[in-house]
Amino acid sequence: xxxxxxxxxxxxxxxxxxxxxxxxxxxxxxxxxxxxxxxxxxxxxxxxxxxxxxxxxxxxxxxxxxxxxxxxxxxxxxxxxxxxxxxxxxxxxxxxxxxxxxxxxxxxxxxxxxxxxxxxxxxxxxxxxxxxxxxxxxxxxxxxxxxxxxxxxxxxxxxxxxxxxxxxxxxxxxxxxxxxxxxxxxxxxxxxxxxxxxxxxxxxxxxxxxxxxxxxxxxxxxxxxxxxxxxxxxxxxxxxxxxxxxxxxxxxxxxxxxxxxxxxxxxxxxxxxxxxxxxxxxxxxxxxxxxxxxxxxxxxxxxxxxxxxxxxxxxxxxxxxxxxxxxxxxxxxxxxxxxxxxxxxxxxxxxxxxxxxxxxxxxxxxxxxxxxxxxxxxxxxxxxxxxxxxxxxxxxxxxxxxxxxxxxxxxxxxxxxxxxxxxxxxxxxxxxxxxxxxxxxxxxxxxxxxxxxxxxxxxxxxxxxxxxxxxxxxxxxxxxxxxxxxxxxxxxxxxxxxxxxxxx
Length: 504
Prior knowledge:
- The chain starts with a helix and ends in a 7-residue tail after the last helix.
- Helix 6 (142-167) packs across helix 7 (169-184), helix 6 packs parallel to helix 17 (380-397) and helix 7 packs parallel to helix 15 (345-366).
- The longest helix has 34 residues, at 2-35.
- By secondary structure, it is mostly helical.
- It folds into two domains: 2-367, no CATH class; 371-497, no CATH class.
- The chain contains 21 helices and two strands.
- It has helices spanning 2-35, 40-73, 87-105, 108-129, 133-139, 142-167, 169-184, 195-212, 241-244, 248-271, 278-294, 307-313, 318-332, 335-342, 345-366, 372-377, 380-397, 407-420, 423-438, 442-457, 480-497, and strands spanning 83-85, 301-303.
- The mean pLDDT is 85.
């Protein structure tokens, strides 16, 4: 009986981790193909296999770590740390880097190299900060760190998939009802059927029934063609680094967040009984992200939250081993092409909405209650980015020109562009600044505002260029960079003048 329970626990843990990774890959592919009309050939033959290689390497290393701990302690119940693709940054990179880069260049090869270069920068950020991640965690308020990513969770992982849900309303709402009932309502289906799996199966079946009946305008018959997609080592993307520096404001926070998450997840594993070395966990996610970049990958790996949950399931090291092998080797065998053809986006969308809600809940839960306005404030730059995602597609459809707009609308578009560019760093700094103010640490708040001013001067945040590129201020004919920097300097001065009832 014990062996049977352990088998089902291991299987349940494997399905949870595998489907999570699979969902991220499917959604990444779907966003690029259906939202930005990116060529599927490059995605399936290069991006996905390289990205999956990072998961394969990471899960193999974490499996080995579990076996090593098992041998050192003599315990047979050691659970491996779960590793997979980071959902917020993967979706964020699709919408904020890969998609816009392709719309700007119409060069799929160059866009792919920009994606690899951005992932390389994320990997380097992770590699460096893995040695002092705890210091970053102490210095930057939780409201700024988690709030910036929570905005991505609510809007890019929540609202954008909701649009996909209503693109196929019957399919999407049926899947949403099942997933919300099981994951949020914690209810059970008849005969204890697995809710997520049933949502995928029933939603996919409805999609094909409605599609073949001619009731879905974008439906097409799936092409079940397999082809070997072996990732190839390359350093050609390094030539695209100069063009990728404009995405550094996105790369830095995403790298920092997974490092902080890795520290927290390792601590939760320790409390659950599995004492892994934090630096080993962090260096693994850094190196596997770098490996993925050199083999064509565009999304970073990270240790997943939920080690205690996997341990309660009865998982050991088999679930990470099987996930790594199936994700890595399956993608190299071309299975992703088939999966993307079969599983509709409307079925996967509710899963990402749920993940988005979890990220938002974590931001408010982990931050002090008094910092909730700071968490909310950090959402606002992400709102601007969301609006620009939709506006950008309409402007592109109208020949990419905004010059015919009335002056008032051109000014509004410029303001939205300023708020959208560098939105992750802006959200982090804004959230931190307000958290410092709430704690009456006016000097810290003044420093945050000063950093905002310096960053805006060089386009790291609030870039005046539609592409979001960074620049030297004296090479930009517009006076906006210096105006915004001066405004932040004035704000910094205000924070130095005001006095609270508590001292810094």
